[in-house]
Amino acid sequence: MRTKGLFILCSFFIFFSLSACGSGSKEDSAGTIGIAMPSKALERWEKDGDFMIERLQEKGYKTDIQYAQDDVPTQISQIENMITKGVDVIVIASIDGEALTDVIEKAKGQDIPIVAYDRLIMNTDGVDYYATFDNYQVGVYQGSYIVETLALENHEGPFHIELFGGAPDDNNARFFYEGAMSILQPYIDSGQLIVKSGQTAFNQIAIQNWDGAAAQARMDNVLSASYTELTIDAVLAPNDAIALGVVSSLKGVGYGSTERSMPIITGQDAEAASIKSILSDEQTMTVFKNTQDLANIAATMVDQLMKEEPVETNDTETYNNNSKLVPTYLLEPIVVDKENYQEQIIDSGYLTEADIR
Predict the structure, then answer these.
(1) Which of 353, 115, 131, 93 lies closest to 210 in space, CA to CA?
(2) Residue 72 and residue 211: Cα distance in Å, rounded?
(3) Which GO molecular function annotations are given, in alphabetical order (predicted)?
(4) Which spans in 191-314 are helix H?
(5) What are the tens digits of pLDDT across the range 179-196?
(6) Across residues 154-182, what is the average pLDDT?
(7) Distances from the Cα of 184 to the Cαs of 76, 100, 196, 246, 314, in angstroms?
(8) What residues contact residue 104 under an 8 Å CB cut-off, 6+ apart?
């Protein structure tokens, strides 16, 4: 009887211990967060991914990050795999915001929340939140920088300008364009700014995949067709990759020399190569979107979703993805040029001195 009682007692303790362990591991599991990024081809997306992993791991979460190398079917497949694995939340910086409707619906069917990261995902109510910068304001800053530097408000001119747009399948590219044109169009209409190529519509100036080589080729064509006898004074480039392609083209025909200075060239993303270019008096400015801050906002949204807490947003009226108004947290971008790069880029820790030398 004693042996039998001891066996029953031991069995009870073993069962209790196993039950407690199983229960505890489920409660203590912080969860896994899927992160779908467009590509490593642009420096900024790799930084975004690294920052996101850092922030989420600080909060105790596991991460599954995938880069799709700008291939939409690959990104869809990666997100489907995350759904199959049963991740708890997916953060998505889409390649094509119009192409993810079906896979987002699959996530919704599995009760997996979706946070759109810097690019709005369209045509589905399965997007729960959106973390981004004020992308219209990015374009406003770029256009305003050109206006102020050329002193157009003082009726200086006329000046020659050429326009570039971002990827046509990136929803943000149109925000950048519309913001910039809200500033530049009145001066184009008045004749103070002349677009000699005649190419001003977004579909005429868009650069697929934000590709610097494609921007260089387009700039080559514009220069040979319209500027053999004229000097170009400004180029609206929506991001740094396109700006650097424009710089390469212009240098190829003698700009940036003692005989012919570079025109004003805008940019965006504060990539190391562009900060170097700015310090070399080639690219003129960039719009800095501190992705450390953006990653922190997105990670906070994820954490609040996981804890079933209210998710902090500051804009519930602007971003309609054709299915719903997506609650959004907007961050403010910053203009950076040779005058303030030290404070904004280096002192903030975004880049180091070694990165830009």
Answers:
(1) 93
(2) 16
(3) carbohydrate binding
(4) 202-205, 212-226, 240-252, 272-279, 291-306
(5) 999 999 999 999 999 999
(6) 95
(7) 37, 33, 15, 19, 29
(8) 114, 121, 124, 126, 127
Residue at token pair 């050329």: 150
pLDDT in tens, 45-93: 999 999 999 999 999 999 999 999 999 999 999 999 999 999 999 999 9
Q: Token pair for residue 239?
A: 């991001």
Please tell me the distance from the alpha carbon of residue 94 to that of residue 114, in angstroms, as a whole number: 12
- Non-local CB neighbours of 87 within 8 Å, separated by 6+ positions: 31, 32, 33, 34, 64, 112
Q: Are 30 and 61 in contact (CB under 8 A)?
A: yes
Which residue from 132, 123, 35, 49 is spatially nearest to 327, judged by alpha carbons?
Answer: 132
Q: Measure Cα distances from 78 to 71, 75, 96, 298 in Å.
A: 11, 5, 14, 20
Burial of 301 (0-12, 13-18, 19+ CB in 10 A): buried
How far apart CA 330 and CA 300 sit, in angstroms, is 14
